[in-house]
Amino acid sequence: MGQITAAPGAEGAGSLIRTPVNLLRNVIFHKFTVYSFSSSDEGPRQNAASRSHAGGVLLERLLRCSSMRLERPGPAIPRSSGSRGQTRVLRLQGSALTGTRATCSAGSLRGARVLVTGASTGIGEQLAYCYARLGAQVVITARRENVLQQVSVLAARRVGVKRSSQVRPRSRAVSGDSPAPGGPALGAQKALYVTGDMATTSDPSRVVKFAVDELGGLDYLVLNHIGRYSFSPWSGDVHHVRGLMEVNFLSYVQLASAALPSLEKSKGSIVVVSSLLGEFPPTPFTAPYTATKFAVNGFFCTLQHELAMRSSDVSLTISILGLVDTESAMEKVSGRTRVVPYPAGEAALHVVRAGSLRQKESFYPWYTHLVCLVRDWCPFFRDVIIRNSYY
Ligand code: NAP
């Protein structure tokens, strides 16, 4: 966080005059954004489908170039002693043409205090591994204790991790010297888990309190969990919609509210994992889920403005994801959509990077940004895309 830099004026003008002008300008002058990520490790459960999708790379860079909005430099992350790990470099450069420049070293996440929700499976699990690889101190949460324990063991593996002596009910600390199943070494300085059910009104605050107490503060709150839903026409079940709203939306609000005082102190970040379905005009078969994601996007976009208006140092990133190959998503859409899923490990990396760069909005994979542009510019194509995406 502390190594992010932005040229003066980049924030205001860059975020107001958005995509079309920048995109066109960069196409004309061939000044594409160059970004690179070098890390030799593969996450323990990185999907074999972690292919590069080369065809989309150029376009993705174009879109990224047009959408990158730079924030003020982030605060320094406290580094705890004994945190020397392998150096991995995460670098993102702004367009030379716009005179902006942003660099972010992954080393800046070393020692960062991170709470990731919904981290027992899917993208949340991959997020935990990403932060761990970058040497952060991670608290993960979800409902299933046995799965959380496995993830935290993997995240902390083979590192001289401090073992927390304090074992609280329904929470555990896992140290790097714990025996673990095979897999590449990660590097969390600290990996703790705490179970919590986000359908209740008490657990969101309890989980945040646990993280703040155990880590001595908080630098990143990563909101990622979602409740169960099916990919089918709405059955008329109002009770399910209400329950899903509680898990997917209201608990996000509660978690953010509980974490904000600590994030204000640390000049930290809220990172919201959201979906294209919360941006794009409604698509069939996901009415309750789509409603919750629209609520999330609406609430947190508004909060972004309010934080900016009161000159808060807390950054808020909303990451818009397309179809990702998590087990739960694949179960739902298998045989029902033509949309190609992208790897969860890459999606997680994208989210970590966007949060670390304090971007306001980020899109993964590349086509999600294009789809959002088409939504507003070409309603005819929008409808064609929607109707041809599902069987
Ligand atoms: P997932 O695999 O279904 O994981 C959901 C996580 O939430 C699990 O860790 C689950 O763990 C936890 N969870 C469920 N109910 C909970 C509750 N009541 N309280 C606390 N935790 C609960 O989801 P995913 O596919 O990785 O998606 C992660 C995020 O990415 C979501 O915000 C989703 O909207 C977004 N996204 C995903 C896709 C995609 O195609 N996968 C696309 C766009 C956006 P427990 O069961 O142990 O509680």
From TrEMBL:
<dbReference type="InterPro" id="IPR036291">
    <property type="entry name" value="NAD(P)-bd_dom_sf"/>
</dbReference>
<dbReference type="Pfam" id="PF00106">
    <property type="entry name" value="adh_short"/>
</dbReference>
<dbReference type="InterPro" id="IPR002347">
    <property type="entry name" value="SDR_fam"/>
</dbReference>
<feature type="region of interest" description="Disordered">
    <location>
        <begin position="164"/>
        <end position="185"/>
    </location>
</feature>
<protein>
    <submittedName>
        <fullName>Hydroxysteroid 11-beta-dehydrogenase 1-like protein-like</fullName>
    </submittedName>
</protein>
<dbReference type="InterPro" id="IPR020904">
    <property type="entry name" value="Sc_DH/Rdtase_CS"/>
</dbReference>
<keyword id="KW-0560">Oxidoreductase</keyword>
<dbReference type="InterPro" id="IPR051253">
    <property type="entry name" value="11-beta-HSD"/>
</dbReference>
<comment type="similarity">
    <text>Belongs to the short-chain dehydrogenases/reductases (SDR) family.</text>
</comment>
<dbReference type="GO" id="GO:0016491">
    <property type="term" value="F:oxidoreductase activity"/>
</dbReference>
